[in-house]
């Protein structure tokens, strides 16, 4: 992805302008403010605004008038307690507004998270750019034989090149027709709200996405997971780096209890107790289905 000189100048101007404030700021987040982080071939993630920091979480939990305790270890312990016991409200005190440029098919996955405020670029009002997501060769894979919504082995050689050519040619042809339908040279030109329906799902759109930290963590837990689709995972991983700098104590707890943790069912707890007591437990004697047992063994051996 390459930003235009005008866009780079706009970002530089925004970062050069400082304003005095009494509200809490995060040094880590200030470094990310307005900066365009490149994702995929034409995408980006930018922080437009944010509210709160680690101290805002603990302040809300204690309902204090100021910073509360100044001991970092106490704040860290409280944040870990809140995360461990699924106390979500204090994390909702922090908010962030992202500017995201992403392919339409990724946006349709993303919008399933209905806990944010979204304003998308309007193709009824404006004309979309000639920008499409074309996967890198290492991301071209066949349908998985064990996962109905996942990828399997990589495509190689002539087959991979044939798919790339089809994706590129179809996208360009669709955009050519889009421009032709919009054109008012010798014709009235089709309305933008109708012409857009001819564009493919890999065309890029943009939106502002504002979300609180609790719901952002939920988004990242699902979309930065290794099982998530690569394209949306690329955005989630970029956002993970930003959030880690913004609220380092909260992000460390999130990594520990959500990303690196595991949820165990009541049956799973019972199996673990029986194992610790020396019993050899099988799937048949566990009370679990084959699928649940397979997932249990993947974590617990």
UniProtKB/TrEMBL annotation:
Binds 4 FAD per tetramer. Each FAD binding site is formed by three monomers. FAD binds at residues 89, 112-114, 120, 212-214, 218. GO terms for molecular function: thymidylate synthase (FAD) activity. The keyword NADP applies. InterPro entries: Thymidylate_synthase_ThyX, Thymidylate_synthase_ThyX_sf. Its EC number is 2.1.1.148. Belongs to the thymidylate synthase ThyX family. PANTHER family: FLAVIN-DEPENDENT THYMIDYLATE SYNTHASE. HAMAP family: ThyX. Catalyzes the reductive methylation of 2'-deoxyuridine-5'-monophosphate (dUMP) to 2'-deoxythymidine-5'-monophosphate (dTMP) while utilizing 5,10-methylenetetrahydrofolate (mTHF) as the methyl donor, and NADPH and FADH(2) as the reductant. This is Flavin-dependent thymidylate synthase. The lineage of its organism: Bacteria, Pseudomonadati, Pseudomonadota, Alphaproteobacteria, Rhodobacterales.
